[in-house]
Amino acid sequence: MTLTSKQICSNGRFIEGHEVPGEWREKFRIMYKGKHFSPRTEFKKGIIPWNKGKEHPKVRGENNSMKRYEVRKKVSEKNKIVIRNLYKEHPEIKEKIKKAVIEAMRRPEVRAKTQKTWFKKGERPSPKTEFKKGLIPWNKGKPWPKEFKKKMSESRKAYAKNNPEFLKRILTFRRPNKTEEALDSWLQLYFPKEFVFVGNGAVIIEGLNPDWISCNGKKQIIELFGERWHEPEEEQLRKDIFAKFGYKTLVIWYEELKDKRSVIGKIQNFIETS
Known about the structure:
Layout: H1 22-31, H2 69-89, H3 91-105, H4 108-117, H5 146-162, H6 164-170, H7 178-190, E1 195-197, E2 212-214, E3 220-225, H8 233-243, E4 248-253, H9 260-273
Parallel strand pairs: 3-4
Antiparallel strand pairs: 1-2, 2-3
């Protein structure tokens, strides 16, 4: 095989990117057979490598350092620092990653694949948190601690108060649950054109989203509270907040819905006296 002047440098070596002819490769193989360019990697004659015939060690149980919490935490913190410093030095990288993820999620095939893998009912992205068929979640039927609910409620309200657009955005696609649908059907049947459901973020008052609001010019609000999610003291707190803007509030608790006649009478009295 003859080579052109463009394929060979002045010193006779091949230019990077061009394939070496077969006869040259055979010459190189014979020339460098059994030789190493670095003394550290050169195998001396008669010396057997220390790991010959040995399997790769499998670290299991307590001997595996990554199973210890302090080691995982240390590695996680180190990775976070590295990523944080990288974003500080190159802020454009974070924006590029964000844009790439958004663009990928806009493609129908990516969304379909994601829904089938990660967000399929009963599955999670991590095998550790995946719910196996037949297993009952540890927290099923257990109510959240009151301190936890109170802390979460206060933090969300404080954030929503300073960011009304955030609250409106997350509630845009919210639909009334079965209990709200039942109460809404009563309102439309017995009090037509009196109240409209705005629990989807249509109305935000000082970071709070009421459930129903009067649509006939009166400043009246109806709230539906579930005992699992609301504390008794929240009733007066909501009334005081809405009263600042001239609204009168009626709070109906979930347990009260068991007596339909009583609830209808309560709403009738609220409309007439307000």
